[in-house]
Amino acid sequence: MSGLLRCARNDDAVRDYALALPQCFGYHRSMKSGPDIAMVASLVGDPARANMLTALMNGRALTASELAQEAGITPQTASSHLSKLEAGGLVEPEKQGRHRYYRLTDDDVAGVLEGLAGLAARTGHMRVRTGPKDPALRRARICYDHLAGDLGVQMLDTMRARQLIRQRKQEIELTAEGERFLARHLQISPDMLTHPRRPVCKACLDWSERRHHLAGTLGAAMMQRFAELKWAARDATPGSRVVNFTRTGEKQFAALFGNGKD
């Protein structure tokens, strides 16, 4: 057996051992009652799984082969990781024809990942590689299904300043003036925002700006409307989370959320 093969098997053993920790050494008996954040942390903490989850932050469903490429691992290893993520409730599969696609289970998972990215950035744990897409990613990107980055934070700030929403810490409520504004400018009505498991408004901590942007069904509806109006579109590069605004889209966005004037 070559040294490289031994190392690969040892790495797999380390990962399996980390996931097995809750079942050995009395770990499960020493934990206090309540949510087991250690188990979720162990799932997110593996570099390959972290890369796969980050790839799913663009809101698109991807196959195991596509996620393997994003993580830089073999398809067989990716399948093993996806089984663990599915069992842990972080991803869910969707079968279409002969293909099996994976997506994040909901925007709560995306919110946690965005928050962890912000914590990593704040504490100096940054990846060395940067490129021309980095400024674009910070300016405007997709976070699961809503707008994030500088423009996402700017949008929420303007909506709060103009009393289109009321925010107290992470709790956000759409006002009557906000409903009128959305109907008039974006043709979004309140009945379009109802969802059995998702709030209308939700604060999501932006990793690059380290302030909140708007999530929830409203954030998703607004991002969808920007795309329908051809103001903005997701970057066509596979795996990219960048959102590109057209020249017209930039002007329209600035008119609504740039200077605080109706």
TrEMBL record:
Q: What InterPro entries does its record include? A: ArsR-like_HTH, HTH_ArsR_DNA-bd_dom, HTH_Metal-responsive_Reg, WH-like_DNA-bd_sf, WH_DNA-bd_sf
Q: Which organism is it from?
A: Bradyrhizobium zhanjiangense
Which PROSITE patterns has this protein been placed in? HTH_ARSR_2
Q: Which SMART domains match?
A: HTH_ARSR
Taxonomically, the superkingdom here is Bacteria
Kindly give the Pfam families that the UniProt entry links to this protein. Answer: HTH_20
Q: Which residues form the signal peptide?
A: none
The residue ranges of the HTH arsR-type domain are 29-124
Q: What is this protein called?
A: MarR family transcriptional regulator
